Amino acid sequence: MTDATSTPAAREGWGDALKGVLIALVVLWHVIMKSYLNIDWQLGVPVPGGWGLFGDLIWPFLMPLFLLVSGYFAANAFTRPWAVVARTRVVRFLYLYLLWSLIHMAAMWAFPDFPTLVPRGVAEFVESVTISPPNTWYLYALALYFLVAKALSRLPAWIPIAAAGILSIVVAAGYVEVVSNRGSLLYNFTFFLLGLHLAPQIRRLVDRLRLSIALLLVAAYLAVFAAMRLTGTETVPGVWPLVSVVGVTAGLAVAPIIARMRLVGPGLAWLGRRSLPIYLIHMPLLALADFLLAGWLSDSRVAVQLVAAVVLPVILTAVLIAGSLLLYRLLLRDGATWLFDLPRWATRTAPGAGRRWRAPWR
């Protein structure tokens, strides 16, 4: 999530601030969908339903916008030779993907009731990390998207973007069997390509947008989302991708405004630059929190449930982010850098590394 290959000039503050917002929303979405809504709320007011609606509201744009920003930050690396970017853009993310998929699998075995797909054997694990990616699928996407985009770099940009757009429409319409996060992997390639190939246009767009336009775009997103929900047209071909595009555009419009906010902007940018460890660590912590809280809250008095129903998602999200960053700091202090980057032995210059390497299709 944090791009180690981007030059400082390429890392505009709005991009990091936006990533800070998005990683917080990712954690919040997981809290709502994987824990909060599974609690037996015995209330006479629809507070849990309100949080569920909020989770539904942010989902059409959440990962598309994250992948678009990731593609945007990958634009510089995309123009460089394979010898420079293969390790940082493909090997590194595949390494982290396999490593943390194993860590998550081992951790989730301790929480069999937690609602996530957990491989129970070698064959299931192989299927999981290849065609039905687990919760760490974003890392797989970063490596796979960049690899495919680089392989197709001699084609006009509109060809892979159009092909990926058709794939997004097909997936959103339910024509492809979705197991685990396979649908997300296939659906979001379009947005990565848009960020990758339209980086200069996105930069100019963000620089020109003003508060009034941002508010209009946010209102437009709320309108198209409401229309989709009220008409039940989520799986009508093209409707969900259209809603995603409007949401992504609104998110881009809001990003520079957030980045310019005193204290809030720098804080979110700081968080955005640390989005990778938050993404990797928060899910096992959430499973532990769900194990400790769900049963107790389900049996609690109405007064306790009412307070928890209102504040639990926000508080738990903050605790998970803080806990993830604390663990990250402790692990780095103890020398476990290999959990978040390629091991040092893999980054040493090998004999012949200075020779220009070309992929088979180049």
From TrEMBL:
Segments passing through the bilayer: 20-37, 57-78, 90-111, 131-148, 155-176, 182-199, 211-232, 238-258, 278-297, 303-328
GO CC annotation: plasma membrane
UniProt membrane topology term: Multi-pass membrane protein
Subcellular location: Cell membrane
Keyword Cell membrane applies: yes
Single biological process term from Gene Ontology: enterobacterial common antigen biosynthetic process
Assigned keywords, A-Z: Acyltransferase, Cell membrane, Membrane, Transferase, Transmembrane, Transmembrane helix
InterPro entries: Acyl_transf_3_dom (IPR002656)
Keyword Transmembrane helix: yes
Domain spans labelled Acyltransferase: 14-328
Entry GO MF terms: O-acetyltransferase activity
Any Pfam family the entry gives: Acyl_transf_3
Stated family: Belongs to the acyltransferase 3 family.
Name of the protein this chain belongs to: Acyltransferase
Organism: Leifsonia aquatica ATCC 14665
Lineage, top ranks: Bacteria, Bacillati, Actinomycetota, Actinomycetes, Micrococcales
